[in-house]
Specification:
two-stranded parallel ribbon, 3 helices, alpha+beta, 50s Ribosomal Protein L5, Chain: A
Length: 167
């Protein structure tokens, strides 16, 4: 394996419900059905009196996936997004995200009237071998500029590996 090879580190599925209650529980149920993993509630970091949100209120759910499961769900999610990604949705570190408007577009999932129509976001984090040295606790060091993933490299990786149109 080449140290310059780009890999998928993790895929995060996210639904921002904006409020607690039944809407949040439906979002949690949907993510658990899509991924087969337990979804975690995300809490608000600031208060917003316009939307009646206090700091610490549960406002969304997310699931983080790694390995083979992450790759499988990414492929299915890209099909649901019609194999298109905007160039704006790729950041300068090569990570990208996109949205699936309705979960019924996702292959293998049927409409559930108890959940309703909900969309979700897919965030993909890319890495190269050896990037762990930046995050480890002992002998932590920086990664050189040549080893970091650039936007152009990420675009080429996405086009080659997943056959995606980037607009």
């Amino acid at each position: 394996m080449n140290m310059q090879e780009i890999l998928v580190e993790k895929v995060t599925l996210n639904i921002g419900a904006g409020e607690g209650g039944q809407k949040l529980e439906n979002a949690k149920l949907l993510l658990e059905r899509l991924s087969g993993r337990k979804a975690i509630k995300t809490l608000s970091k600031t208060r917003n009196p316009v939307f009646h949100i206090k700091k610490g209120d549960p406002i969304g759910v997310k699931v983080t996936l790694r390995g083979k499961l992450a790759e499988d769900i990414l492929k299915k999610s890209l099909k649901a997004a019609e194999n298109k990604i905007s160039k704006k949705s790729i950041d300068k570190f090569g990570n990208f995200s996109f949205g699936v408007k309705e979960y019924i577009d996702y292959p293998g999932i049927k409409y559930d009237p108890t959940i309703g129509i909900i969309g979700f976001d897919v965030c993909v984090t890319l890495k190269r071998k050896g990037t762990r040295i930046e995050k480890r606790r002992i002998k932590q060091t920086k990664i050189g500029k040549k080893h970091k993933i650039k936007k152009e490299e990420s675009i080429n990786f996405i086009k080659e590996k997943y056959n995606i149109n980037i607009e």
